Amino acid sequence: MINLILIDDYCLLRQGLQALLSTWEDFNVHVGADLHAVKEQLATCQVVIFSVRQLDPVGFDQLQTLKLQLPQAALIVMAASTDANVISRILNMGALGYLGLDATEAELIAAIRKVVLGLRYVPAVLARELMLKKMLSPSVGLDNNPFLRLAARENQCALLLAQGKNTLEISALMALSTQTVNSYRYRIFQKLHVSGDVELVKLAIRYQFIADTVYAK
What pLDDT, in 10s, does the model give residues 58-67? Predict the structure, then answer.
């Protein structure tokens, strides 16, 4: 059984997608306009489908929040954009799958079954666009994104560090001791080959892990 959460602020659309996905016997589907609406299912969630009409700064902030609160879940983003730069940014921020709002049922099911195994899924047409972007800009591609080296909790801690949170704040947000946070911080710096918070923020902006409007304290 695959435990799914679908986030969409349009009631009719999320009900329609819930009805569609519920026809598959191995899908356990919960829907809500935001994470608060499905808070009781967060601990067991394996896949999050985040459906958003517009990928503006608010949309990217919501995406960051999803990754922060559900580091263990595979994330699929559904949006209208076919821009390779936008899709690349979404994947660099930690999403495993991307679908257009015109995706077919077969594409949605294929995406769920792939990401739950830790594999990426992008429809063939969009994948070709991403490959072209990688060929034109090979220095900042998905394959060499250093943030993909991090484990789920390290990824969560790295995001908080890049947002300027200090050890005590991260300790409270992640429900960890300060010693454990410092241990994560040390491993993150090692894996990303950075020596401090400023270098971490620069790297996070370069790979679109955070928006360039976020600065370390």
Answer: 788 888 888 8
- C-alpha span between 101 and 80 (Å, rounded): 5
- Of 174, 170, 168, which is closest to residue 69 (Cα–Cα)? 174
The Cα 34–Cα 21 span in angstroms is: 18
**Separation between Cα atoms, residue 21 and residue 32, nearest integer Å:** 14
In a domain, 14, yes or no: yes
23-64 pLDDT, tens digit each = 999 999 999 998 888 988 888 899 999 998 777 777 888 888
Closest CA to 158 of 214, 210, 91: 210
Domain membership flag for residue 217: no
Q: Are residues 107 and 78 part of one domain?
A: yes
Sign of the torsion angle spanned by Cα atoms 186, 191, 195, 200: negative
Structure tokens at 161: 């560090």
User: Closest Cα to residue 65, out of 193, 197, 186, 156?
Assistant: 156
CATH (domain of 151): 1.10.10.10
pTM over 0.85: no
